[in-house]
Amino acid sequence: MNQAGVNEKYKVSPFYVFFLVHSMQTGLGVLSFQRDLAKATGTDGWLSILLAGLIVHILIWLIYKIFRIVPGDIISTNNHAFGKWIGNFFSLLFILYFFVLGMTIIIGYINVIHVWMFEEVPSWAFALVFLILIYYINTGGFRTITGIAFLTVIVSYWLLFVPFYGFKYSDFTGFLPIFHHNLVEIMKGTKSFSLSMLGFEMILMYYPFIKSAETSQKYARKSMLTEELCSLRY
Hints:
The structure is a single chain. By secondary structure, the protein is mostly helical. The chain has eleven helices and no strands. The relative contact order is 0.26.
């Protein structure tokens, strides 16, 4: 899909890329990455977070580099690079990836609801409610999806400042010892943190729906930096 093929009224300002990326990254992964990260790297977990952030910043740069060469989305890029048949095959893999990612998030949220609130309600009931809500939002178009992403970030952003109250009770010796894990162990920690980093790759699909999309890279990077800071706080 070439950017010229998207009507201007369906596009959003580059500024909203911050909320689109951040709303995807802040979610299910926040609930469990601390435990997995501590098992892998202990007090060096913050190094894994920084390394994961660096990797994602590089990948974001590559995404925008690709679209400077071939404007459009990942489907048109695959067709341009590999031809129709092989390009469609790779596009199908992306669709499968997005489906698996979506199902992982839905199942994860259903498990959270089961554990904390409604243990006896069947999973299919929650799944049905989620799918109806997802369908309703998607029928409103990309601008509606962007609005939901904007609201979810704004409504929950005050939580960033709650931990500051507990800083006076903090024991920063918990960061010690530092640098006592090798690179392989830190990389394993980065892997355990990967679910909290995912979401930036959605740019591959909605890039044509961004006004002056090439200027939105700074907002994607700011969103990634915010996610890193939030994860370090947790």
